[in-house]
Amino acid sequence: MGSVIELDLLDLGWSLGIIAIAVALSNWQNLGLESQLLVATGRSLLQLLVLGYVIAAIFELNHPIFVLGILGVMLTIAAKVTSNRIPHQHKGFFPLIWGSLLVSSGLTLSYALSLIIQPDTWYSPQYLIPLTGMILGNAMNSASLSGERLIKDISHNQREVETHLCLGATPQQAIAHYRKEAIRISLIPTLNQMMVVGLVSLPGMFTGQVLGGSEPLNAVSYQILILFMIMLTNILTATLITEGIYRQCFNEQSQLTVK
Fold it and tell me: Same domain, yes or no, for 35 and 101?
């Protein structure tokens, strides 16, 4: 493998030409996306440059407090973004989502780090931060898809749910079908990705490692691990989210409160 080709500020400046072409195409086709493209470009540049400096500082400090601190910020932002995507929010949605993401990602990371990767220190930022970022990003989508689907299905089928309740079903039994469907729907993007990985698409983890100079087979091994971690985290997240949401859709008398 050859050495890594470093990109300097001039190279990043030239990369803006790619966005300039996209803006020109948007203007040519009258899409009206020019301002959004420019704003998105500016935010991406600012956020990623800040992230680069912050991560570099954390790598230099290499202390568990700072590593856990950045992970806590990432988790909180992920939970907030996810809660904003789910309609008919109740007061307890944010803590529910935050806790679900924490449990699902924590269990998956603990398994992978302790049994598979086994770094010198459990809080190694080289592994813990990027792995957390990848599985949290996917878990957000799973949480929002499952939560939104469950609430919409319950809301659109109130009479059916209430009929089950009148016939003696528990709230869990009354919405069991909708909950299973919500979990299934949330996992479809991950399943589709796993079906075509290496054939149609080259995942970011694999591409990044190869560009960084790693051997392709080693990059493939890490990508396999990441895919499996994402699947486990997503199914855990969807299970916890739908369990918590359905409970908030009923009061203490097992009456449906979603309208």
Answer: no
In the predicted structure, residue 89 carries a pLDDT above the cut 60: no
User: What is the percentage of the chain residues whose pLDDT exceeds 70?
Assistant: 96
Whether 8 and 135 share a structural domain: no
pLDDT at position 106: 96
Instruction: Calculate the dihedral angle through the C-alpha atoms of 176, 180, 182, 186, rounding to the nearest 10 degrees.
Output: 160
Same-domain status, 171 and 200: yes
Q: Which pTM was predicted?
A: 0.85
* Strand (E) or helix (H) holding 45: helix 34-61
Pick the closest to residue 139 from 177, 180, 109, 179 (CA basis): 109
Domain boundary among 61, 83, 112: 61
- Confidence check: pLDDT of 134 > 60: yes
Nearest residue to 85 via CA among 26, 174, 8, 151: 151
* Sequence-ordered alpha helix ranges (H) in 157-175: 158-166, 171-174
Identify the CA nearest to 244 among candidates 141, 139, 136, 92.
Answer: 92
Q: Which domain holds residue 25?
A: 1-61
Both 117 and 48 in a single domain? no
Which DSSP symbol is given to 245? H
Q: How many C-beta atoms lie closer than 10 Å to residue 129's C-beta? A: 20
Task: Give the residue from 23, 38, 61 where a domain finishes.
Answer: 61
Q: What is the pLDDT of residues 212-254, one digit of tens each?
A: 777 888 888 888 999 999 999 999 999 999 999 988 888 888 7
Name the phi and psi angles at 118, rounded to 5. 50, 65
